[in-house]
Every structure is written in structure tokens, then in C-alpha cells.
Amino acid sequence: RQGVGLRDNFLILQIMMAATALYAFPSLRHLPGWNTGGLAVAALLHVAATEPLFYAAHRGFHGAHLFARYHALHHSNKVPTPFTAGFATPLEHLVLGLLMALPLAGACAAGLGSVGLAFAYVLSFDFLRAMGHCNVELFPGGLFRSLPFLRYLIYTPTYHTIHHTGKKANFCLFMPLFDRLGGTLDPESWELQRKNRAGMDEAPDFVFLAHVVDVMQSMHVPFVMRTFASTPFAVRAFLLPLWPIALLFMFMVWAWSKTFIISYYHLRGKLHQIWAVPRYGFHYFLPFAKDGINDQIELAILRAERMGVKVVSLAALNKNEALNGGGTLFVNKHPDLRVRVVHGNTLTAAVILNEIPKGTTEVFMTGATSKLGRAIALYLCRKKIRVMMMTLSTERFQKIQKEAAAEDQQYLVQVTKFQSAEQCKTWIVGKWLSPREQRWASPGTHFHQFVVPPILGFRRDCTYGKLAAMRLPKDARGLGSCEFSLERGVVHACHAGGVVHFLEGYAHHEVGAIDVDRIDVVWEAALKHGIRPV
Ligand SMILES: [Zn+2]
Ligand SMILES: [Zn+2]
Hints:
Blueprint: H1 2-24, H2 36-61, H3 64-75, H4 90-109, H5 115-132, H6 143-146, H7 157-166, H8 177-182, H9 189-201, E1 206-212, H10 226-229, H11 243-256, E2 260-267, E3 270-280, H12 290-307, E4 311-314, H13 321-324, H14 328-333, E5 340-342, H15 345-355, E6 362-366, H16 371-382, E7 386-390, H17 394-403, E8 412-415, E9 426-429, H18 435-438, E10 446-449, E11 463-464, E12 469-471, E13 490-492, H19 493-504, H20 518-528, E14 532-533
Parallel strand pairs: 1-3, 1-4, 4-5, 6-7, 6-9, 7-8, 9-10, 10-11
Antiparallel strand pairs: 2-3, 12-13, 12-14
Helix pairs in contact: 1-4, 2-4, 7-9, 15-16, 15-19, 15-20
The protein binds zinc ion (2 copies).
């Protein structure tokens, strides 16, 4: 509680200082909106006075006497956050406030002050302080190698974190130049900066190409809120006021953005990244948006090709049959691709099939003629399990039935009404089910599902399976965020399918229809690599 108060104190202090200035110098009440000359004066004073004075004061605060009394508090946050910037004692805030006022006072004294300058300077100052404490490296890893002079002009989050942990170097405000002059510059600062940034800049070996689910879910990414992203996604109260802002971002992303990195982890020493196509779930249902989405996916695949990525796994709607034939479109258009394009659904089918209890003799399936439905039906009839395939299209049903061996065809049955499923306790749901349709199931039925979004569990006397997912191997490192509503370390089965494709070094593209013969092969390979069912 004391901590929260201390975090706000400096705001009150700064308002008091500004109010005092306005009171003492009435002319400040009539400043113009903007004056470029004033900016030059302030910049000069910042470099010539604020920076060196802060450096001197900060080193003073690290003296034995002052540190324990005044500065230990600021260093008490073992892991800095943007709020740590404002977490200090009143004396420190007073010193910082005065140093901040200097350039503004100078510009005003020269008759060049402006309202714009006051806002621009104070906000930039706060922004840079928060940036330095944010504990996420923001600057590109190669930047300070290609432009070495920048090392002395701007600090980085890594740079200030070194100060927080070691307390022996990197004392400057924003400009490492003064650490250089004072002999307190940690020479490892930029090497460490590059390493901290590594997961973002290195070329990955594996990419899971996702998309945004909806506006609410768009806030569930580590670069918006790390804490929130580190827990499974759920709609929370604090998201509601932010929703309009996220909506605005949706339009901006739709208009301008290209595929971007969401997160990454390491497995067996290789970098795996999750990229997002800048499209939201609902875009996939807009007929006019189809070409734009395929262009985005194609661009991402070609970028991965240039980077030397080995496998790109298409997530969720990015491999929609109607959109691009489960990835077939890209493979046909670019026959020379070295990167393997994978829909990962062979493993999805395997996960669903392995959830069906041994001894089951009959299942009922909706979405039965879809890509997954077809593969599941063909697999089950080989095991002499009767599959009631719910479809109104006899033509599509017969096409699948003919694929089965002659002696197994009798196990595939077309049904057109939910009544037929009344006695069957194993439902495999591949198409949205209304509460009304769910009412046909007898008590004790289990609903397995591969429908996106998952159906809502209306029946209290039945059980509902989750979307097919698998747990990554124990040696996966750096899993800081959750994949949608899944637990940390658990990924969608198609993601895991892509990982298996990469680990096994399969040479084929996994696009279009699922090869039923490969279901067991992929499942065994996943288990062999320590990828486990949830
Ligand atoms: Zn600090
Ligand atoms: Zn310090």
C-alpha cells in the first residue's frame, strides 16, 4: 500500500511545482502553442545541464550514507517495470523534478517557451524513464553495431537493468555518454542488449502462423500486457475500457500492417516463433477479404523462405479449405519452396482419435465431410467402429465412403437427423451445435470437438472435450505467454503437428486432405519427441 502511494507522489509534486511556477510568473499563463527556437534551447540545456547534473546526483545517491536512506527503495524492485521509474523517495523526486524543470525554465527565460514544449518535454522524459525500466529490450539487436555513435546518445532497457542489478555502472539519465565520461560504463551493455533481443531478431527454424481471434483477444499478446499474456486468455473486466482502443488498432492493423512476431520459445536449441497475420477471425468470413488474407499468408511464407525457416505451420483459419485448400494454393503457386508448408491437422486428427475410449463401437459425427471429419471417419471404420456421419449431401458422403476398403464401407453410415444419435454416447462435433441440437444427446454423452470456436456446454448431464491440444516437451525454454486460452506450455494440436514435422525433418508439404495412413505415424513421432497429450 505504501508502494502504491509512493508511485503517485511524484505526480502531485510535479503539479505543485508547475502551479508554483505559474503563480510566481504570471507571464507563463500566456505562452504560445509552439516555438521551435524554444525546443533548441531546451535540448541544449538538457544535454548541457540536466544530463550531467542527474549523473552527478545519481552517483551521490549511491554513496553509503544517501543510498540506504534515499535510493535503496528505487533499487528494491528486483525486476524493474515501467512503474519502477516513478518509485522513489520524495528527495529523489524533488531532485528529478528540478532537473526536469531546468530546460523548460531556460526556454521560458529566453522568451522562447511554449505550451507544446512543456508537454512534449515532460511526456518524452516520462516515456524514456518508463522505457528504461520496462525490462523488455525494444531496440533492434543490430542497431548499435551499424550505428555505433548511438551507443552514447540513448540508453536501452538492458542498459538500465544492468544498473539496477549491479549498482556499480550505468548511472546516466538517458545518455550513456556521461557514463563514458565518468568512467562508469559497463562495456558489456550492448553485447547483452543484443542477446536480450536475440529471440526477436534471429531467423527462426519453425514458425506457427496464427491470426488474431477478435478485438478482445488482440490484447492478449506479450507486447501489450506481459502479465495478462502469461495466463490463459479469458475476458476480464479491465479489458472492457480498453476495448475501444483495441478496436481502433484493429482498423489500423487491417489497413497497414504486415505479419508480425507475437512470441517465441526455444526447443532443442532451435528458435520457434509465433507470427500473426494482421487479420481477425471475422475477416475470414467476409467474402471480399479473402484475396487480401491469402496475399498476407503468401507474403509471410515467402518471407519465411528468405529467412531460411524450415517449417511454417498454418494456424486455425489460415488453412481454411474454402480460403486456400488447406495451404494447397501456396504450394502450387510456388513449386520450388524450400520451406515446408504444414496444416498440422494429421496430428489434430490423431489427438481426437486417441481421446476416444477403447471399446467404443459407435460414434456420431457432425462436420463429417470436412477435412478432419473425413480423416476421422476413414480411420475409425478401419477399426470396425460404426460412424454415423451427419450430412445432407449424399454425394459427399458416398465420395468418402468409396475411399474406405470394401470390407469397411459398411461401418460408414449417412444420417440426416439428430434423432439417429439419441442412443450414441460418443459425439464428435465438427460443426457448431445449437442448444436445441445438443438436447438430442442422451445423458452421459461426451462431446469431442474440432469445431472453431468451440461449442458452448449447455448440458449439465454431459461432458465436453476441449479443442485438440498437446503439451510441448519439457525442454522447451522461454515460454513466457499462453497460446489463446490454453495453459502455458500447451499448444494447439496443429501447432504441435508443425513442430513434429520440423523435428522429424519430413520432406513433404502437409497441405490439402489428410493422409489417413500417416495419423499413427505422426502420433508416434510426437510421443517419441516428448510432446504429450494434455
Ligand atoms: Zn532505475
Ligand atoms: Zn541507482
